[in-house]
Amino acid sequence: MSFTDADLIARVLLHEDHNAFGELVRRHQSPVRAFLVRMTRGDSHLADDLAQETFLKAWQKLYTFRGTSRFSTWLFGIAFNEFRGAARQRKELALEDMAESPPELAGPSGAAGSNLRLDLTEALKLLNSNERAAVVLCCQNGLSHEEAAQILDCPLGTLKTNVLRGKEKLKRRLSL
Amino acid sequence: MNTPEDTIDALLREQNAYIDDNGFTARVVKSLPRRRRAWLRPTLLLGTVTIGSLLAVWWLPWGNLPPLDPSVLRSMDSQVLMPWVLVISVTASLVWGAISALERRD
Predict the structure, then answer these.
(1) Which of A29, A140, B50, B72 is deepest in the core (most CB within 10 A)?
(2) Which residues, at least 6 apart from A116, have a Cβ–Cβ distance to it below 8 Å?
(3) A97 to chain B, closest Cα gap in Å
(4) Model confidence over A140-172: pLDDT tens digits?
(5) Rounded distance between C-alpha atoms, residue A111 and residue A153, angstroms
(6) Degrees (nearest 5) of the Cα angle A108, A110, A115?
(7) Roughly what angle, to the nearest 10 degrees, separates helices A145-152 and A71-89?
(8) Nearest Cβ partner for B19 among A21, A33, A136
(9) Contact (CB<8Å) A120/B15
(10) Under an 8 A CB cutoff, do B19 and A16 touch?
(11) Residue A90 pLDDT
C-alpha cells in the first residue's frame, strides 16, 4: 500500500513519525538535490549540504504547509531560500551581477550530441541565479510559470522574462 | 521541425536524471531534531488571552464608563478619557493576542 504525500505529512504532524518523513525525503530528494546542484553551478557537496538543510527546515516548519500547492513546490521554495542565504553569505549574488554578460556567452559552440549536453551544463552556469532557477524549474522540472514564480517569490512577469532571457542566452551560447 | 526552444527544453529534460539516494535520506533522518510543537504557541497565547479577558471583565470599570461626546473629546479631560484609553488598550491587546494565536505562520 502506498501513501500519498498528504498521508505522510499527516503522520509526521500527528505522530512525529520519522519513517513517514524519511519516505517524503526519499521521494523528493532527487529533484531537490538536482535543482541545488544546478543552482550551485555543479558543486554537489554544497548542494547536498543545502538539500539537507532544506529537509531539516521542512521537518521543523511542516505545520505551516497549507496544502494549497504541491509538497514539491513548497520544498523547492525552501531550497531556493537556502541557496539564496548561502549565496548571500558568499557574496556570490553581488559578484554575478558584476559579471552579467560573461565573454564566453557570445562564443559559438558548434558541438553536437553529448558535447551539446556538456555545453548546456556549462552554459547554464553562465546564467545569473534568477535566470538559472527560472529555466531549471520551468524547462527541466516542468513546473508551471505560476508555480515557479511562487517558489522564487517574484512576479509572474519577472519570472517569464527570466525564462525567456535565460533560454535566449543558452541558444546563443549553443549556437542554436 | 524542432525550434531551438524545443531543443533546449528537450536537452534540459533529458538531463533531469534521477539522483541516487546513496544514504542521503538516512543522513537527514538521523539528524532530525525534535520538532517544534505547533500547538504550544497558540495554546499559550489563547490561555493568556482567556485569563486576560477574565481579569479585564473583573477589574475594568465597564459599568462606570463616563459618556463620550464630542465636547469631552475636545476638552481632552484626562479624568474622562483615561478609563476609555484603558478599556480600548486592553481590548485591543486581547484581540491582537487572539488573532496571533489563530493565524498560521510560514
Answers:
(1) A29
(2) A109, A174, B11
(3) 24
(4) 888 999 999 999 999 999 999 999 999 999 888
(5) 36
(6) 115
(7) 40
(8) A33
(9) yes
(10) no
(11) 79
